[in-house]
Amino acid sequence: MRPRTLDEYVGQDAILGPGRLLRRAIQADQLGSLIFYGPPGTGKTTLARVIANSTRAEFIAINAVLGGVKDIREAVDRAQRIRGEQGRRTILFVDEVHRFNKAQQDALLPWVENGTVILVGATTENPYFEVNKALVSRSRIFRLEPLGEADLRRIAEQALADPHRGFGDRPVALLPEAIDHLVDVANGDARALLNALELAVETTPPGEDGRVVVDLGVAEESIQRRAVFYDKEGDAHFDAISAFIKSCRGGDPDAALYWLARMVHAGEDPRFLLRRLIILASEDVGLADPDALVRVEACAAAFDRVGMPEGRYHLAQATLVVATAAKSNSIMGFFSALAAVERERTEDVPDHLKDGNRDAEGFGHGVGYLYPHAYRDHWVAQQYLPAGLQGQVFYAPSDQGHEAGIREQVIQRREAQLASVEVTAAEPMGLTTGPDDPLLHRFAQRALAGAADHMAAVRAGLFERAEVQRHHLVLELRARTGFLTWEALRRAPEGGVVAWISEADPAEAARYAGTLREQVAALPELLRPRVLTGPLDEAAATLDADALRFDRVLAHDLLGGHLERLGDLPAVLAARLAPHGRVVLAEPVPRLAQRLSQLTHPEGLPAELHARWRDAEEALHADVDARLSWEGPDLAELFENAGFSVQVEHGAVERRLRVTARLLERWWTGAWGERLAATLAADDVDTLRRWTRARWVDRDVAWHTGLAWVVARR
After folding, report:
1. For residues 550 and 473, is the Cβ–Cβ distance under 8 A?
2. How buried is residue 698: exposed, middle or buried, by Cβ count under 10 Å (0-12/13-18/19+)?
3. Buried-state track 193-207, b at ≥16 Cβ within 10 A, e below 16
4. Virtual torsion, Cα 228, 231, 234, 238, nearest 10 deg
5. How far apart (Å, rounded) are the C-alpha atoms in residues 469 and 481?
6. How far is CA 375 from the centre of its chain?
7. In what helix (H) or strand (E) does residue 589 lie, and over which residues does it extend?
8. Torsion of CA 107, 110, 112, 115, to 10 degrees
9. Residue 276 predicted with pLDDT over 80
10. Spatial CA neighbour of 229 closest among 312, 158, 146, 166
11. Which residues have a Cβ under 8 Å from the Cβ of 285 and sit 6 or more positions away?
12. Which residues share a beta bridge with 714?
């Protein structure tokens, strides 16, 4: 049932969905060196086979477990011969690339560097740990995530329906509770699911009606225990021990017991854990509780005498001593945590708890971790348990002895953490990394260099709130001059950028689009942003032309001050956003605009007249019947009605403005001046016009623009 084409491939939409760089590169047959990294059964080798079926290049496959330097040399010789005779490229696929030793990887490196072969590697281990740094620096790395429930169900359905490679040629009834069990225990591993399904069907005799019925009992027999992905020398080890240490340091016994149970269940050396606890007893408890080290040492000595499995009591007790800085006899909480590991789906380590020593820049591991010693009382509320286990209680302090003294503290901190952590499904972070493209970097620098300071501040504010990742697909609304396009290209090199020029006038839209396309013509075709044109009120037709799902939608001054221009755009964007997608807007708000009466000091102007001018302006901006009388919450409501969760904050950007006679005349004769004249007496207006002409013309003033920052999440 291994997929043979991109259309058959299931899952990994975040890096392989429509419009993503990897999909475009495969379809265009323009691949560079790649490394696929992820747990077993997520589709790494399958993706390489799809590439083999899609490319016009020669495709050579090596398994690093079985191959060596001799196989590499043979592949290189073949690649050189094919390039010389046929002018074709060669893609070298190395499965389990981390199994190559340093000498084997070094033998491969020069041929990757000079382009003789294009490397496509697959590994279950973090390439930053196990793969030659030179190979890593020359490759784009794509992290494949465990498959979701919907993906696994789709794979099972395909297997049951396919008459040639699956069970479509025989009557099989897979009961709902059976597929629920298989999907749950498969834990994101398509191979485990298919193996269990095959075993269930092949070992179940047909009934009297000829059907093979797979019920819950058969499913449980076919896949009895969830596999916990863990390598004691790999990435999972470093991430889990990092989370364990940080949980102990942060005073969270629930999280500490959970990570302990996860490592013990996976076969981690208990003596290694005890050594870490002995260090922690001095490093993070110290003189705050001088007896902690003595108690942990006693637990370690008791463990050496008793051994496994009963030694788990002493290991759990030492963990609780460090996490609470007090001796506890409530170590049965460890077995509650162990039961959770066996019962629940394996949850990923939150990114901020992962070990970021070597790959923080590439995958964002460790980013966002709050160091408790930097906070008052050496504690800060933050997430230590996985998102799916927030609120789970493993440690229940008793009211006996010294433990009674820490009971209240544990309960209070538990409540504070629950109040501070929003329990939501976290967006996958750092799914790709790779070398920056110097051409794209220089191009973006030139394109961004001319922006005024206040515009650069708006752009920086948008990207700060958007948190664009390298694999994201970004849509810029009202692109026009490429104000956000170049920065989006720089930040999402393995994703893609779509620039939508949403001007209502077709001629004006065509002019902007032509200019934008000319500017990006120097970039390689794969890196160029896609340019769309069409008015906002035709959003559905414009965006439905392709089955793209955007991770981020960005815009500055989308509405031109007119809220009604938004129309049904929020609903259209809701349908076009990927999971965890967000829309980030920086919208100038007319009601927060600069008041001319407060632009400069009213020197030489009668106080009563200045007061009437100021009051008239405030009344004008507060007029509920005025078409521009809206603020951020009004805009937020339109997105909330489309099913978004919205955050709004108001702010302002300031710039220096040169007031010319022409600009001043436009103010007084335009819509603002006409509406002000309807409120003030004619003599007052004449006096104000003469005063502003004498005081402001050909002078620089500090002009601020009120903004509504809107972040709408799906």
Report:
1. yes
2. exposed
3. bbebbeebbeebeee
4. 60
5. 23
6. 27
7. none
8. -140
9. yes
10. 146
11. 292, 293, 322, 325
12. none
Contact of 137 with 33, CB cutoff 8 Å: no
pLDDT tens digits, one per residue of 487-518: 899 889 889 999 999 888 888 889 988 888 88
pLDDT of residue 327: 41
Assigned architecture for domain 13-143: 3-Layer(aba) Sandwich (3.40)
Q: State how beta strands 577-588 and 699-713 pair.
A: antiparallel
Q: Which residues contact 406 (CB under 8 A, 6 or more apart)?
A: 324, 325, 326, 397
Determine the Cα–Cα distance for residues 102 and 99; give it in Å rounded to an integer.
9
Give the Cα separation of 124 and 130 in Å (integer). 10
- The domain ranges of the chain are 13-143, 149-222, 235-420, 438-589, 597-626+661-697
Preceding amide of 39 cis, omega within 30: no
Q: Average of pLDDT values for 292-305?
A: 90
pTM equals: 0.68
Q: Residue 47 is encoded by which pair of tokens? A: 């993706």
- The DSSP annotation for 290-327 comes to THHHHHHHHHHHHHHHH-TTTTHHHHHHHHHHHHHSS-
Q: What is the pLDDT of residue 329?
A: 41
Question: So what CATH class is 149-222?
Answer: mainly alpha
Element (H, E) at 226: none
CB atoms within 10 A of CB 111: 20
- The domain defined by 235-420 carries CATH number 3.10.290.10: no
Q: Does residue 219 have a pLDDT over 80?
A: yes
Instruction: Please state, in angstroms and rounded to a whole number, the distance separating the CA atoms of residues 677 and 689.
Output: 11
| CA distance readout (Å), 508 to 504, 517, 555 | 8, 14, 18
For 523-561, how does the pLDDT look when each residue is reduced to its tens digit (9 = 90+)? 888 888 999 888 888 888 888 767 789 999 999 988 887
13-143 matches 438-589 in fold: yes
Domain 438-589 has CATH 3.40.50.150: yes
In whole angstroms, what is the distance from residue 632 CA to residue 636 CA? Answer: 6
- Name every residue whose Cβ is closer than 8 Å to that of residue 356 and which is 6 or more positions away in sequence: 364, 365, 366, 367, 369
Q: What is the pLDDT of residue 364?
A: 66
pLDDT band at 626; cut points 50, 70, 90? very low
pLDDT digits (tens, 9 = 90+) for 422-446: 544 456 666 676 766 665 655 555 5
Task: Report the alpha-carbon distance of residue 351 to residue 359 in Å, rounded.
Answer: 11
Chain-centre distance for alpha carbon 640: 22
Residue 694 zone, left/alpha/beta (φ > 0; ψ -120 to 50; rest): alpha
Give φ, ψ of 371 to 5 degrees: -75, 110
| pLDDT band of 112, cuts 50, 70, 90 | confident
Share of residues in the chain with pLDDT > 70 (%)? 89
